Amino acid sequence: MRSERLLSILLLLQSHGQLPSSELAERLEVSVRTIMRDVEALSASGVPVYTVRGPHGGIALLPGFRTDVTGLTADESRALFVLLSGSAHADLGLGAALGSALRKVMAALPAPHRPDADLTSRRVLIDPVRWRGAPGPDHTAPDLTAFQDAVFTDRRLRLRYRHGRDDRVHTYTLDPYGLVNKAGVWYLVADRDGEPRLFRTDRADSAAVLDEPVRRRPGSELTDVWDLLRRGIDDLPAPLAVTVRVRTDVLAMFLRVHAADLAAPGVAPQTVPPDRADDPGWTRVELRFRSVPAAQPLLAFGADVEVLTPDELRRHLALTSAATAALYAPGRDD
């Protein structure tokens, strides 16, 4: 524990220069007396640390002394600060630990790398949980060059964009906050006419960075705007109640794939007596989807998953399966 505290003192002094002993004590949650003993230990080990007396005094390192405890390159430094969403760390009970770790890494970075690392932490976010009822990414990597340029240089973006609801191309002038990777799909978070909006980068016909500086709303950061937009989508009710039965031997995989579609997310279903005495080894699962087409990914499990209700979904999946089977029927003319 003490060795970790000694390293923290060294990194804080490297990052901030001279600091009062009371501030170091507050940051590290120990007494001033403990800090002074730690400073003596650092000095005895050869670290050129000294105290400055007086009302503006404190603890400092000898000017010019640096120790690179990371050996990180500029790109490696930026990569470390592409953060997972705060909720992902919080769910694991690692929210406080993440903040502490990043502060230590930031303090240890060579000074020229720090601005880029800090900017990356505020402009790029990774959210690993896919939208409820949404299929996975099609693995088509969009060109993010213009988006990154706008995001990291704080300039406005002219976007020609094709919405999913129609086939028309709309042109917008946007004020970007940053980029979010949502379960493998890249989104631009930006203001359009002063209102927060979300744009899938793979639906962009073109993107051009303008010479105009970005006009973000004061006090708004990427994490705040993303959380607002995400909740606006996730909190929408999924009106289609679906009951399926899943073969027990594929249940674990099914629950991983459809975790976001569970009627009670985070609560695993219980194995129930089979619906048919001659067909054991099934588990009933209750799901919610936004629409009948949104439930079509259930077909990926083939005969290992059967939709019990509603009938309209059973008919839709039957027609889709028949059309697919006909497409691959032996002897079909091209």
CATH class descriptor name of the largest domain: Mainly Beta
Tally of structural domains: 4
- The whole-angstrom Rg is 27 Å
Count helical runs.
Answer: 11
Helix content percent band: 25-40%
The CATH architecture category of the largest domain equals Roll
Query: Would you report the number of β strands?
Result: 12
Low-confidence stretches: 274-278
What is the global morphology? elongated
Report the average pLDDT across residues.
79
Strand content: 15-25%
Topology as a string of helices (H) and strands (E):
HHHEEHEHHHEHEEEEEHEHEEH
Counting helices, strands and paired strands, the structural category is alpha+beta
The N- and C-terminal alpha carbons lie at a distance of: 71 Å
* Main beta-sheet annotation: 7 strands, mixed
CATH-assigned fold name of the largest domain: SH3 type barrels
